[in-house]
Design goal:
Structural class: alpha+beta
Shape: elongated
Helix content: 10-25%
Strand content: 5-15%
Distance between the termini: 61 Å
Number of strands: 4
Number of helices: 1
Radius of gyration: 23 Å
Order of helices and strands: HEEEE
Strand order of the largest sheet: 1-2
């Protein structure tokens, strides 16, 4: 079984983890409704993609 010969220092551990940070998704505004959406995806609030209606969005009923 492989066992490390020396303990990994805090500095070396931190350098290894330097690229592990999470990044926020790049959101763009929908040209139809203005809601934030992921690029190259159908808008979830209005159902448009590249100027075309892809699907109908049902109205939410508030109770």
């Amino acid at each position: 079984m492989a066992v490390p010969k020396k303990r990994t220092s805090k500095s070396r551990k931190g350098m290894r983890r330097a690229h592990d940070a999470l990044t926020a998704p790049n959101l763009s505004a929908c040209p139809q409704c203005g809601e934030p959406k992921l690029p190259h995806r159908v808008c979830g609030s209005c159902g448009h993609y590249r100027g075309r209606q892809v699907f109908e969005v049902e109205a939410e009923d508030d109770l």
